[in-house]
Amino acid sequence: MQNVDQELDLKGLNCPLPLLKAKQALNSMKPGEVLKVYATDPGSVRDFASFANISGHELLASEEKDGVFIHTVMHK
Fold first, then answer.
1. CA distance 18 to 48
2. Is the predicted pLDDT of residue 1 greater than 70, yes or no?
3. Catalytic residue (choose from 8, 15, 17, 60)
4. Residues 6 or more apart from 15 whose CB is under 8 A from it?
5. Against a cut of 0.90, is the pTM above it?
6. Does pLDDT of 2 surpass 80?
7. Backbone CA torsion sign across 56, 58, 63, 68
8. What does the alpha-carbon distance between residue 12 and residue 60 come to, in Å, rounded to a whole number?
9. Which residues, including other chains, have CB under 8 Å from residue 22's CB and lie 6 or more apart?
10. Is 29 a catalytic residue?
11. Between the chain's N and C termini, which has fewer beta carbons within 10 Å?
């Protein structure tokens, strides 16, 4: 199980806010630190996958539990 350094509860926010707030959080984190984001916007699944591809950060997991999308991203 990966340690999580920071968590963001972004439930109720619509695209692109979950990703923008996650990017802001990652900017203040160090390489190797892990951010876990909770979002209810289904578009966040696509957004976080694309962001990881473009930014070089590693998307460790994206899962959905009871309508909440949980994205775990490692700062690279």
1. 9
2. no
3. 15
4. 41, 43, 44, 47
5. yes
6. no
7. negative
8. 23
9. 8, 10, 35, 37, 48, 51, 71, 73
10. no
11. N
Query: Using one digit for the tens of pLDDT, what is the confidence trace for 42-60?
Result: 999 999 999 999 999 999 9
Domains recognised in the chain with CATH numbers: 6-74 (3.30.110.40)
pLDDT at res. 49: 96
Q: What is the average per-residue pLDDT within 31-41?
A: 97
Q: Write out the DSSP string of 20-60.
A: HHHHHHHHTSPTT-EEEEEE--THHHHHHHHHHHHH--EEE
pLDDT at 44: 96
CA distance 31 to 38: 21
Average per-residue pLDDT in the chain? 96
5-17 per-residue burial string, b: 16 or more CB within 10 A, e: under 16: eeebebeebeeee
